[in-house]
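Hi R.,

Here are the chain sequences for the assembly we discussed:
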Amino acid sequence: MRKAMNEGLIAKEKWWEWVEDKKDRVFLTERAKSRYGKWFPREVKVVKNGKEILLPPGEEVYRYFWTGEKWKIEEGEISASSAFLFSLPCEARAIIEVTDKIFLNNPIDKNYWLRRKSLSLGIMACLQPEPTCFCSSVGGGPFWRDEGALFLVPREDDIYIQGEGELFSFSEGVEEKIKEEIQALQKKAESVLPSLLPSYFPQELYRYFEDEEWNELSWHCINCGACTFLCPTCYCFDLNVEGKLKGFQLRSWDSCMFPKFTLHASFHNPRPTGKERVRQRVMHKFSYFPEREGNFACVGCGVCVEKCPVNWDIREAIERMVEKIDRFRT
Amino acid sequence: MFEKEIRRKSEELLETKTVDMVIGYTSGSLPFQARPVLISSPEDTEQLVWNHFSSPNLARYLLPYRDSSKKIALLAKGCDARAVMVLIQEKQFPRERVHIIGLPCPGMISKTKLEKELGEIKEEDFSFEKDTFLWQGKKWEIFPFLEDTCSRCRYPNPPLYDELIGEKREPWGSSSTDYLEKMNGQSKEERWQFWEEELSRCIRCYACRNACPLCYCKECFAESDLPRWVSGVPTLSDNLFFHLGRSMHLAGRCVECGACERACPEEIKIGLLPLKVEMIIKNNFSFEAGLSLEEDAPLLTYRETDPGEFIK
Amino acid sequence: MKNNWEPKIVAFLCHWCSYAGADLAGISRIQYPPNIRVIRVPCSGAVNPLYILKALREGADGVLVSGCHPGDCHYLSGNYFARRKFFILHELLQWVGIEKDRVQFSWVSASEGQKFSQVVEETVEKVKKLGPAKKLVKEFTFHV
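And here is the predicted structure of the full complex:
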């Protein structure tokens, strides 16, 4: 029903015209900036990833005060003006395939929804994956695109753009030669990335819940929380009320690595040590979430691998479990 | 660089059952990175490495074994051994159960600094020799590439050890007082601006706290609900509160290993705050943590002559 | 508008000396500025540095901590430890950029009602000059 794919080339000057005009409303992720910073004015705001905009590290949910006779509650105001976020495919995929599924499904998180509907996404193709990248093993890819977002491949003097948008509409299509060029770039980028995890992985991984491998795997993790906070898909949050006769309920980022995560009111904690927490992180991303939603809750961006202070590598954990599973599968 | 001796010694200790396990470094999954490893059988000692990228503080890994009966051999750099000393003094770990393999520290090199200066680099192209390395046919001094935390190190040699592997060395020249002297000389507004900038980037992931061997409270004050000191939101005031509070809790105990600063994913110079506290204590109470098992901690003692002019 | 601003100062007073001294000031009808909010603690050594930071976080414009004179502590040595702790905290706060006069300390004995009122006057004067506290105050706040 949709009309043919809207794609075309936009010359450098036209692009600059467009982006200069919008620069106050443009966000760029750090990684997109390090690759394509020269295509954007210096003044654009840089964010770590989409999570910073859509699910900020702290926000007021409601405020309350005692009027002298009764309690008054006011919902926190969210103002979201229309904006653009240009990111790499993995970061965009984190929004579209993970956090959107959590916050825009029943129930719809009002704050997230307000921000999300005014945020337009632009996916910048990843021409040179880093050694820590593994997006292709979790269902993504360096040229992953979605019909809800623009897709851009910057070239020498122009940008190949694909996608709907009142911003860009192209009357002529794109020459076959250019399309082949783009495809070649895609193949080149994909060639350095690992292959897709087997489809039986989420289900099989769960059967190794009690496996001893977790002891060894989790030993050197210091359970800090850096990986969860930097991860574009980790979405756990904490709600805390501060104040007495007047105060707030604040929503802030939580982490499965923190000691109070899943601490029950009875003071029993089903995840008392680092081993259970590390296992939880891997299980959630590679078993629980995919079984429920159909895709991994990890987009393979590799930021956690890059930044872990003790070099805990989620790829190794996955590899070891795949090996184990394959060894014993009939 | 003494890797063979380390492996041999560890193998010996495990075979003779002098220790039940060895905690050391092994090569990581990324170049220029080493990771902590637990070795329990003599054959696995081949995994041990020791190089300029073995930066996490291993004393931290003694903490889960506080209540066990296992004897542990720990590969300890100067700062790590100091941390073990403080843990022993604070009765967190008995001296008899830790066998310290002292390693005079050659200084940890920052991968970021290497990449910034040399561009794209591969680990195979480097060969390290004493305080220099060879790369692309040229000899380079390692000092400019050291992690900030290591370039201000004053105690590379372990003050406590059961055996020493390697040659004792001189500290890297500039004492920590010099490093802070520059900041001490700045105006208060400049320092405030610096800290405002640095701590606005803090996301309160607690990597600094968890990497520290001396932050071992079962419930950290930052996560306490009753009383609640800070909120979960990383606002500037709460970040300041957390870091100032943590520095005060480390007063007289911090061994300036810099594990906190190296762990920070936002690359905030977070080690400067506990360092300043230690400098205050060193200059006024003549005490440095982790150098002697007999000296009492500064906040457990007092003198009649303590500075008191600031009190009306 | 600024002339009407009165600083709010949290005062941690040790029960045995400073609090009694403050009481004596009251009984003797010695006038002193009403800007302080007193929190009675058993000993100046019981004042956790986190209390001082917390007071600043909650919006106090200044903090005063007062205890027994060295040698006269009811618990023998509490104030000695306090002196060391506060020295370190004070130096650290100054180094980070918090104004020196936001957090002040004094030794006031139970018989020094006059001194107490002087200490409070001095404290209030110094904090007034600094203006309202901004640096450590929590961001999530609202006034009804």
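Chain A touches chain B at residues 57-58, 131-132, 219-220, 222-226, 228-230, 238, 240, 242, 250, 252-255, 258-260, 305-307, 309-313, 315-316 (CB under 8 Å). The CA atoms of residues 57 and 252 of chain A lie 5 Å apart.

Let me know if anything looks off.

Best,
T.
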